[in-house]
Amino acid sequence: MIVSGRKLRVATTSLAGCFGCHMSFLDIDEHLLELVELVEFDRSPLTDIKHCGPCDIGIIEGGVCNAENVHVLREFRKHCKILIALGACAVTGGLPAQRNHLDVGQCLQEVYHTCIGVESLPGGQVPNDPELPLLLDKVHPIHEVVRVDYFIPGCPPSGEAIWKFLTDLIAGHTPRLSHPILRFD
Amino acid sequence: MSDTKKFLLDGKPVVFQDGQTILEAARQAGHYIPHLCWHPDFPAHGSCKLCIVKVGGRHVSSCAMPAKEGMEVESNTPEMNGERRALLQMLFVEGNHFCPSCEKSGNCQLQALAYDLEMLSAHFNHFYPNRPVDASHPDVLLDFNRCIFCELCVRASRDIDGKNIFALTDRGIHKHLVVNAESGRLADTDFAASDRAANICPVGVILHKRQGFARPIGERDYDAKPISVVAMEEVEK
């Protein structure tokens, strides 16, 4: 992917993720110095920019578990030429999706009302502040909500896998992950 | 005239004996054809379709198709591997395959095949079925979330252990693995951890308790070498 005369613009975000994939991204260590020669960051936890502008590459960690995730994901899709699902949660729903066979209302009751250690708390209630995004009844991998160009599985993907994938992509090759750096765990 | 019979696998001659299937002959000659429900100790089952090959323009299960003189078989081609990848993706979305939290990760044939065929996403929409686990047995845990319906445990329990403990029930998307006990619980059968059926699951359904991560991630069956290499080393043994 060649853009003459300027650095590639990259945005990243974590939806229903744990930021582990971002930590793994930082695990490319000294390659970060090579990377900043090639790219500059738009919206990302690394820059604290709050909204995504026009970008070449968008990297999404985490699945979609609430209404805000849907808005952020659509913003990324709208502004990024290439969208990458980074990590097990973005690719499969991951750990948050393990609630999918349960009723979300019962989950909230269990967590805030009835589970051991919480049942005796006075005035305990399910949080309902209007600032809080509403939960979806199911957690979805991002490709079930928007079109996704590439997937990097792993929990988290290793720094090596992320670096291999990004350098392939930036060099204009078809990015390829295979044994042993392709892992789902 | 020579007595040896041959067919062509991806353009290479493979010698076979009468009665051998394409998969058996290929395996004997050192060529790997992906498979999940096939096992050398059991008759062909033909349910997973991962061993699909193209013979004379037609798709066949190589585990069930007898080898014939002069056949031209396509296996390791972009077309066949693409179809295998799509089959794997369907298996992944039909169950709940959360590799990061599965103690079979690294020893799982489904996962290893997905690595080998470079499956990067499940592509389809996930079903997220509700399949409660059965932890009733003192030594063995059943996590039905990961079942791919290969029936290896059903066949092993029935044909080798003589206990007939497992069965598949219902049809289509409702198909699921059950335990043949009135209560439906594994604890109410004479199942033992030493049974063949307890040691044959290619995925993470039948798990021995208290072993978990005794063998750490990184030192498992498919960590150092891909399944296509490991499976061929098993033939040599």
UniProtKB/TrEMBL annotation, chain A:
Annotated signal sequence range: none
Pfam family, one: Oxidored_q6
Cofactor(s) this protein cannot do without: [3Fe-4S] cluster
Domain NADH:ubiquinone oxidoreductase-like 20kDa subunit, chain residue ranges per copy: 18-168
Keywords annotated in UniProt: 3Fe-4S, Iron, Iron-sulfur, Metal-binding, Oxidoreductase
UniProt keyword Iron-sulfur present: yes
4Fe-4S as UniProt keyword: no
Superkingdom of origin: Bacteria
Cross-referenced InterPro entries: Hydrogenase_assoc-protein, NADH_UbQ_OxRdtase-like_20kDa, NiFe_Hase_small_N_sf
Record protein name field: NAD-reducing hydrogenase small subunit
Organism: Azospira oryzae
TrEMBL record, chain B:
Cofactor: [2Fe-2S] cluster; [4Fe-4S] cluster
PROSITE patterns linked: 2FE2S_FER_2, 4FE4S_HC3, COMPLEX1_75K_2
Domain 4Fe-4S His(Cys)3-ligated-type: 79-118
Keywords per UniProt: 2Fe-2S, 4Fe-4S, Iron, Iron-sulfur, Membrane, Metal-binding, NAD, Translocase, Ubiquinone
GO biological processes: ATP synthesis coupled electron transport
GO CC annotations, alphabetized: membrane
Domain 2Fe-2S ferredoxin-type: 1-79
Subcellular location: Membrane
Family classification: Belongs to the complex I 75 kDa subunit family.
Name the record gives this protein: NADH:ubiquinone oxidoreductase chain G-like protein
Natural source organism: Azospira oryzae (strain ATCC BAA-33 / DSM 13638 / PS)
